[in-house]
Amino acid sequence: MPELPPPEGLDARLIEVALKLLETDGIEGLTLRRVAREAGVSHGAPLRHFAGISD
Question: pTM for this one?
Fold first, then answer.
């Protein structure tokens, strides 16, 4: 099965969700799985767009 391109604006959406989680729950509440869940994408999607949580 061919790989589909990422939805337009997904990088920005992931960043937006991560910033919201930092604001509400602090660094302790920030995980890539949680960012993915809140953004409505698979748990592996953030790592496809960023090298890690430090990006």
Answer: 0.74
